[in-house]
Amino acid sequence: MMNIQIKNGRLIDPKNNMDALHDVFIAAGKIAAIGTASKGFVADKIIDASGLVVAPGLIDLAARLREPGYEYKATLESEMDAAVAGGITTLACPPDTDPPLDEPGLVEMLKHRARELNQARVYPVGALTYGLKGAELTEMAELADAGCIAFSQADAPLTDTRVLMRAMQYAATFGFSVWLRPQDSFLARDGVAHDGEVATRLGLPAIPACAETIALSTMLQLARETGVRLHICRISSAEGVAMVRAAKQQGLPLTCDVSMNHIHLSEIDIGYFDSNCHLIPPLRSLRDRDALRAALLDGTIDAICSNHSPVDDDAKQLPFAEAEAGATGLELLLPLALKWAEQDGHALSNALSKVTQQPARILGLNAGHLTIGAVADVCIFDPDLYWKVEPAALRSQGKNTPFLGMQLKGKVCYTLINGQIIYQG
Amino acid sequence: MNNPQLNKHGELQHLLSTEGLPVAILRGILDRAATFVNVAEGREIKKIPLLHGKSVFNIFFENSTRTRTTFEIAAKRLSADVVNLNIGSSSASKGETLLDTVDNLCAMHADMFVVRHAQSGAAHFIAKHVAPEVHVINAGDGRHAHPTQALLDMFTIRHYKKEFHNLRVAIVGDILYSRVARSQIHALTTLGVPEVRVIAPKTLLPTAVEKLGVQVYHDMRLGLRDVDVVMMLRLQNERMQGAALPSAQEYFKYYGLTQDKLALAKPDAIVLHPGPMNRGVEIDSSVADGSHSVILPQVTFGIAVRMAVMSMLAGK
User: Fold this and answer.
1) Can you tell me the distance from the alpha carbon of A360 to that of B147, in angstroms, rounded to the nearest whole number?
2) For A2, B147, B243, B250, which has the most beta carbons within 10 A of its beta carbon?
3) Which one from B66, B109, B128, B221 is the annotated catalytic residue?
4) Is A272 within 8 Å of B1 when comparing Cβ atoms?
5) How far apart are CA B146 and CA A383, in angstroms?
6) Does the distance separating the beta carbons of B122 and A203 come in below 8 Å?
7) What's the pLDDT score for residue B98?
8) Looking at the domain assignment, is residue A196 inside a domain?
9) Which pLDDT score, from 0 to 100, does residue B1 have?
10) If you average pLDDT over residues B251-267, what whole number do you get?
11) Mutation test of the interface with chain A: which of B207, B211, B214, B216, choosing the one with the most A Cβ atoms within 10 A?
């Protein structure tokens, strides 16, 4: 294994409250020293990080790799490549593959395939119910043994509250986390846009914000009842945020994430039916967007995720409602997290915390920091470099994003995993 | 964001929606339509050669006889070659994508597409993908827009009321699912109607309807008071199957236009309906056939308005 010295970089490690110019020394795949090398350290490779930020590798809570089942949208190879190009060293993938991740064998296969690629660490989120059908519990303990880090319904509905309660009780028995995206499936039926001004004007079938709050209320009450560790995925409304804030204040062991698209965009960005803005959950009003941003700052929302959902062109080249929902995201997570902090005047470390230390905490991993002795998963990026989001600039097989054509600031220069340079930009 | 309906000189490139159209273009269409009204009346030969040699493709992904026919007549009176395609019963059912269908028709050197589709935004989508010399007319997309219907309604209103700036207009019925209502609202507010009302139960109104610049009434008797124009909407039968309405009978009792409710409007009020009518559901026969009704003139004017739109798009 190579000894690496990263010199002259600005080391930002949110967990250790570090933001200063320090060299980082890596040996045997771990952070060996910070500032000055330990005795006898000889660098095999020196990375000059002048003008660059040296940060923990990013951790993404929601990245759809589309395997198994949807290889025509994206493959493990293409998306793992995209992840490291985006500075992501650890990612969790939702269970909505085909078949869904409801059998230990599928999970083992995915873990194995991902390991072979020797790129980002992949943590599958197992299906909470068989086939994500919301009726029968999966073998959660077996799935956890196979490598599942949490259990979820992805975007599939779980309307039967008795099943939901049983699922939470069973998960709580073993101390597993349950990840849920709150949406009442009756109120959301056929909906493709936020029930507001834009859907009214464009005549798009709509999903009201109360579809989120009604489901959220059920989830919070069942979490109180069962004592399960609940993680709320992709919160999207101001009212939903207020409920999460109140529940946290009451001491519920709750965590929450938001998609990077939703802290920057609103229903207005749909413009004249831009199907790249057909997302799940729907882009809501400016007021909702502002509430999400404020909730990130005060810690109500713990983490930002990419909600990476590569969609093939044929599925996007359709009228808005018929176009498949989703956007590519792995390579935009870093610049969009930085953009939030810059626009609202927060420190860089604040943004990085939401994509390193905080998601690590949600996953229960000792990761997302650069403490001496920690595994050397590192992202080195130029915080001032603008790049244009265009298909050719993206490694992901998914080329659709609402940010297509925009200039974003923040470009990954090196990604290190286990002390090895996996990506160099 | 560029207005996809206008070219870089600010002229009409496509007609997709009445929203965002400059008032001068709206008035221009109505003025031109007025010159065409006489083409059909009192002339031995009903054709004029403005679109001679041009191909107009009526592509209907959703069934319609009436609208398609009026477009066909309008194009033929302008001497265009007209091709009617009922895509619902051909390519789409064979799995061809919308874009492939459009590309194929473009390859046949179409000059103009008249499009109807069940999805909101379909006409915008097609307009974005056709070659710059091809024009798209939206003949109805989902719940979004039906601009030529709204324009013929405006033409009818101007024909009887002369001006827009002194009118009180009520739109009654299923606003939520209606592309006609949305297009009417934008056209009326753009043309300067100071008071546009919508009258419907809450289940048939979109959430942010007041943001469109209308006043909301749930009580039809209050909403019709002193209006100059009553624009009725068709109630689709499927509204009775979901949870939107309990029954056609109850709907008619509270939101159907009857003689006694119409008596609350101004004495010279006119009644419009985009057709086809559900007599006894949204409108009583005595009103539909009565002296206030301008429903048949609407159909006649519809052809002139569509001729006006087509000839303007063709740059003639």
Assistant:
1) 53
2) B147
3) B66
4) yes
5) 48
6) no
7) 86
8) yes
9) 60
10) 97
11) B207
Contact A317 B97 (CB under 8 A): yes
In chain A, which among 386-425 make CB contacts under 8 A with chain B? Answer: none
Question: Is B239 designated active site?
Answer: no
Q: Are B228 and B270 spatial neighbours (Cβ–Cβ below 8 Å)?
A: yes
| Tens-place pLDDT, residues B71-118 | 999 999 999 999 998 876 555 556 678 888 889 888 999 999 999 999
B179 in contact with A, Cβ within 8 Å = yes
* Pick from A390, A412, A330: nearest CA to A90: A330
CATH of domain B23-146+299-313: 3.40.50.1370
CATH number at residue A289: 3.20.20.140
Tokens found for residue A348? 């860089």
The CATH code belonging to domain B147-296 is 3.40.50.1370
pLDDT of residue A78: 94
Nearest Cβ partner of B208 from A196, A318, A322? Answer: A196
- Closest partner residue to A203 among B4, B98, B182, by Cβ? B182
The 10s digit of each residue's pLDDT in B187-227 is: 999 999 999 999 999 999 999 999 999 999 999 999 999 99
Q: Which two tokens stand for residue A106?
A: 């599928």
**CB contact (8 A) between residue B120 and residue A322:** no
Mean pLDDT of all residues in A190-203:
97
Contacts of A200 in chain B (CB under 8 A): 206-209, 211-212
Q: Distance, in angstroms, between B182 CA and closest chain A CA?
A: 7
